[in-house]
Design goal:
The protein is built from 6 helices and 41 strands. The chain has a 22-stranded antiparallel β-barrel. Strands 1-3-4-2 form a 4-stranded mixed sheet. The chain has a 4-stranded mixed sheet with strand order 20-21-26-25, with no helix packed on it. Strand 12 and strand 13 form a beta hairpin. It is globular, with a radius of gyration of 28 Å.
């Protein structure tokens, strides 16, 4: 076992003493688990963002993330760092996140500890596509990072070109045409995309504190060929429509953190600006009266949205007094946001403006009730209670108060139990309130009247919405243990959320929904579905109950070395296995006060969009050696059987399993931990089994199978990437 691994194991069994680093709000807490760089290397990801996503998949609940014990205004630039820049990932139980101003959701907190001495400059090229050779992807990414003590400088530039998938390359199944009623074989099932992205981040000591800054700019453009229908339902058999959407976004964030003794203070400032433009172009003759333009090519829709947002957040936390069980701690967080949304309808020369101002505050008090030194009760372990009060206000709407109570019980070092009871409200987002009225053409939906998939138009945009309130109960238990050279972590989480006045939308018609909401589903005289009003509205109540189980195993073989004048230390063999199972026990939606609740597991709101499954299983295993790494991912979800209220119509979806495989190989001096640059070739096969949803619909006319190529157009794909380092890298 390597010296670093031995030291890390000793660290996990003793109190944490911070030397050479600035104090943070979590210096007095022992992490539940520590993922060393050896364990992290077995994930074989290319960015820190991908690594965090992989860890979150097996933790059951999406975690809160801090970096070097500090909450940053934005993780945009940090997510582009190479995983090799991470020294370790510390996993903390609830309610640690409340010390940084995160909502008391009952989730875990990840502290990303970066290396103190690291340097890397790489160029990565990717190429791939579907195995049917009808869609290609090409990308080029340059990454650079330099870490020296508390100073950090990192930059990323990327360019991506992703092709579109045409219906003409996909077969028809069971008599269902590729576009439903219209039957246009030239339409795009998956849009093409071009993206340019640049990010810059740095941190440095400033005065008595630390300054973290990040800058991001992004240009994203999508394009697709649409089906031959318009909002009014007029067929255009000899014409085409093309949808173009471009988004330009810029973001800058700054965080200044400083500690005075045991008290910690930080200020986060963010400013973002984005402009999105959606254009629908129609090839037509000059006599067609569907556009305001005149000529063979016109614009039937041209809407732009400009959004500017500024935010200021501040937090203050520290110990108030010492008691026998531990320290009483106070954490305060406050923030203010201002946003402005300007909608430009360039065809009708309208320019409505919407302004959004919100203020929020959160106060958390941590009360240690029982500690190891507590007389008589010390044998129970450590018990902490953390009551939290929140207030949020929205200009012109009012204010809401929330409360939460978190309890953490450390029974013994390997076992902990956490509970969170929260009651709070939330205002609609600026997108839900101020988004422009926009018609999204050519959206695939299931239409029960034809028992098949059709392409129709979606009406989206902001509407007048009321606030929603929710009551949440989270119960979790975590057990960690080391068996020789293997570590094991088991976790379970029970979650129930009851939301009043939830914000929902109706994505597909059904006999029940169309009977009660006829104005949301527009049909022509022939019964063809021409428009769905998918704008959000407030329903009555939403209830969700789930149980999640996680198991993570990891092991490391001892490192070996070679003798001689050019001695090398060979990286030990790393392996890991992660299992995550989620059981959705209940999910029901009551749309109106006198409307019976809809069991969404038996009667989903959307078939094409993906019905919720009662069981979801994820398996992930990886083995990493000195030069080669193999990673296997498998996901499975249970089937769904939905019976319509009339007793005749039904939909049956078979269970679906998808398998991914990733292999990488390092070339060069890969086995030396004092390595010179190495070249890495990575191959990834997604959906090896080429699995697609298998859905059968039943009606009075009989049974038919929905076209799986419309439900999952891409299928199996292969991606090859080459990572080339430039210059010297310290250390791997």
């Amino acid at each position: 076992m390597t010296e670093a691994k031995v030291a890390l194991d000793e660290l996990s069994d003793t109190a944490i003493v911070v030397t050479g680093r600035r104090l943070t709000p979590i210096d007095d807490i022992k992490p539940r688990r520590i993922l060393s760089d050896d364990t992290l290397s077995a994930y074989r990801t290319t960015t820190l963002g991908e690594l965090l996503e992989a860890i979150a998949q097996h933790e059951g609940v999406a975690p809160d993330v801090v970096v070097n014990g500090r909450r940053l205004g934005s993780l945009a630039d940090i997510e582009a760092l190479p995983p090799e820049a991470v020294e370790r990932v510390e996993i903390y139980d609830a309610p640690v996140g409340q010390r940084f101003g995160f909502a008391p959701r009952g989730g875990r907190t990840l502290n990303i500890v970066l290396k103190r001495n690291f340097q890397s400059l790489t160029v990565e090229a990717k190429a791939g596509g579907t195995t049917r050779r009808d869609r290609g992807l090409v990308s080029m990414v340059g990454r650079g990072a330099r870490l020296r003590g508390d100073r950090r400088l990192n930059a990323t530039v990327s360019a991506v070109r992703d092709g579109e998938v045409r219906a003409s390359r996909r077969p028809a199944v069971g008599g269902n045409s590729e576009t439903g009623v219209q039957g246009n074989r030239d339409r795009s099932l998956v849009p093409g995309r071009k993206e340019l992205d640049a990010r810059l981040g740095f941190s440095l000591p400033l005065g008595n504190g630390m300054l973290d800054m990040g800058v991001k700019t992004n240009h994203d453009r999508t394009f697709s060929l649409l089906a031959l229908s318009d909002v009014s339902g007029v067929l255009l058999p000899a014409q085409r429509r093309r949808q173009l959407t471009s988004v330009d976004a810029q973001d800058i964030s700054a965080t200044y953190s400083v500690n005075r003794g045991a008290w910690f203070t930080s200020i986060m400032i963010g400013l973002s600006h984005s402009v999105s433009h959606s254009i629908t172009r129609l090839q037509q003759d000059a006599s067609t009266a569907l556009c305001t333009d005149v000529g063979p090519v016109c614009r039937s829709q041209s809407v732009a949205l400009s959004t500017t947002t500024g935010s200021v957040d501040a937090q203050l936390g520290g110990p108030l007094l010492d008691l026998t069980p531990g320290q009483v701690r106070l954490d305060i967080h406050a923030g203010h946001d201002r946003s402005s949304v300007v909608n430009f309808d360039r065809l009708y020369a309208t320019r409505p403006t919407y302004r959004y101002r919100s203020t929020r505050a959160q106060v958390t008090l941590t009360l240690p009730l029982v500690g190891p030194k507590t007389p008589l009760l010390g044998v129970l372990g450590t018990i902490d209670f953390s009551p939290t009060l929140t207030i949020e206000s929205l200009a012109g709407t009012g204010r809401m108060f929330g409360r939460a109570l978190s309890a953490s019980w450390l029974i013994f070092p390997e076992l902990s139990v956490n509970a969170v009871m929260e009651s709070r409200g939330s205002f609609p987002s600026i997108a839900q309130l101020g988004a422009p009225r926009l018609v999204v053409p050519d959206v695939n939906v299931y239409d029960y009247r034809v028992a098949g998939i059709v392409a129709t138009n979606y009406l989206t945009g902001g509407t007048a919405l009321a606030r929603e309130s929710s009551d949440t109960i989270t119960l979790s238990a975590n057990y960690t243990r080391t068996f020789g050279g293997m570590s094991a972590a088991f976790g379970t989480t029970y979650l129930t959320i009851r939301t009043n006045e939830p914000i929902v939308s109706l994505p597909e018609p059904s006999p029940l929904l169309e009977a009660y909401f006829p104005d949301h589903f527009i049909r022509d005289a022939g019964g063809r579905l021409t428009l769905i009003d998918a704008r959000p509205f407030n329903a009555r109540r939403l209830l969700r109950k789930s149980l999640t189980l996680t198991l993570n195993l990891a092991g490391t073989s001892d490192a070996s070395s070679t003798a001689g004048p050019k001695a090398t230390v060979v990286r030990p063999l790393q392996w890991r296995l992660g299992v995550r199972a989620e059981h959705l026990m209940e999910q029901s939606l009551q749309l109106m006060p006198r409307f019976a609740p809809i069991d969404l597991l038996a009667h989903p709101l959307s078939i094409v969009g993906g019905a919720p499954s009662a069981w979801n299983l994820t398996l992930q295993g990886g083995v990493t050696g000195a030069r080669t790494s193999l990673v296997v991912d498998y996901s499975w979800r249970s089937g769904v059987h939905a019976q319509a209220q009339n007793g005749h119509d039904a939909i049956h979806s078979e269970p679906l399993g998808m398998l991914d495989f990733t292999a990488s190989r390092d070339f060069g001096n890969a086995g030396n931990t004092q390595s010179t640059p190495t070249f890495r070739v990575t191959g990834r096969i997604r959906n090896i089994l080429d699995a697609r949803p298998n859905i059968t619909v039943f009606s009075r006319a009989g049974a038919s199978r929905l076209n799986p190529w419309l439900l999952a157009p891409e299928g199996r794909s292969i991606l090859i990437s080459l990572t080339v380092p430039i210059g010297k890298e310290y250390p791997p």
